[in-house]
Amino acid sequence: MKKIILVLLIVCGLTANSFAQKGEKMQAIKVAYITREVNLTEDEAQKFWPVYNKYFEELKTARDQNKADELAFEEKSLAIRKRYKADFKKILVDDARVNTVFVVDRNFMEMLKNRLQDRKKNNRNKSGKPA
Amino acid sequence: MLVQIPRVKVYTLPESYFSNVSVNVLTSITLNAYSKQVPYAIPQGYFLSFADVLLQKINALHNTAGTLPQQYFECLPDKILSRIKQEQNSIDDELNEIAPLLNNISKANLYTLPSGYFESLEVIVPRQTVPAKMIAMRKKFVQFAAAAGIAGAVVLGILMLNSNKNIDVPISYKEAVKMDIATNVSSLSDEEINTYLAETPVIGYAINNGAEINIEENIDAASDEEIEQFLQEQPDLSNEI
Fold first, then answer.
1. Among the listed ranges A113-127, B17-31, B84-98, which one has the minimum average pLDDT value?
2. How many C-beta atoms lie closer than 10 Å to residue A29's C-beta?
């Protein structure tokens, strides 16, 4: 009987925990990365994230709607980025920082890609293959 | 005629009469008071027989007060009852006056039973159940209920903890500033990173189709100079940083 209760508790705890953390790890890292790259203050962060999330959602929709047409996606993406430039400028004031917002996603992905490649290299080195 | 009366003092007093008069009066009173006979007299042997006389008198008094009419207690209840009965009528009248409705209610028993009811009455006693099994069932239920309650509390607690965070951002500002990004990235699995790269809508990053890996291995074979030169020659806007 005690075993059943214990198992029930563990299952419930894990479910709740995974439910809460679903896909949040990467998002948390990204938030930390952007916060540091754009040099957000606490007040700015409060205003910045709702706008950024909306902006990112629009880009995603544009991507989903133009999966087969890279040029159409790029056109839409450009339009969206231009539209949000004014919103970011209101929050961040400085032009250079606004510009950082528009490259920060790519930088982040670059960083992730580099990390993946490092891992592959390390694996190869460990398995004895010449670099 | 008055003039003819000779002016000579007719009455005389012994010398210093008034200065001694009060003392004289008092002494004469005191002397007279002490007669030579004792004013109070007691019969002979008065105090010797006093106790007996007193007791006799008390006894005489007690006897007269303590006597009861013959068979007083035997007929006392009858006397009381007859007295009550005498006054009964007046009580009835009073009740009639105060609450005529209550007084009119019949004092007969309203509830009746069919004759021989208790003789034919049969009590059905439920058959004895097995008590051990019932306890076991109850125990199980209580344990399950407790477990479910605790589990519910745990889930609720975790959800509430998480709901405290900003809805827009999965971590707080302070957590974001403090985070060691490199360590956190290295804790991500390859799959997590690939999924993110594939899902992120940034110009120039094609959806991962799985062919990349083979190409990358070929690129690894090229020297760094070769790759750098190639990248610099590319006009692709998405690679400008």
1. B84-98
2. 27
* CA distance, residue A118 to nearest chain B CA (Å): 11
Average pLDDT, chain B: 77
Domain count within chain B: 1
Q: Report the C-alpha gap between B192 and A37 in whole angstroms.
A: 22
B131 assigned to some structural domain: no
Is residue A82 a part of any domain in this protein? yes
Q: What residues of chain B, 132 to 191, have a C-beta less than 8 Å from chain A? A: 140, 143, 146-148, 150-152, 154-155, 158-159, 161-162, 166, 168-171, 173, 175-177, 179, 181, 184-188, 190
The interaxial angle of helices B190-199 and A95-126, nearest 10 deg, is 140
In this prediction the pTM is 0.45
CA–CA distance, B120 with A47 (Å, rounded to integer): 89
Structure confidence by residue, pLDDT tens digits, B18-73: 888 888 888 888 877 766 666 677 888 888 888 998 998 888 877 665 667 778 88
Query: Is A31 a member of any domain?
Result: yes
Domain containing residue A69: 24-126
Q: Which residue of B has its CA nearest to A60?
A: B201
Q: Is residue B225 part of a domain?
A: no
Give domain status of residue B90, yes or no: yes
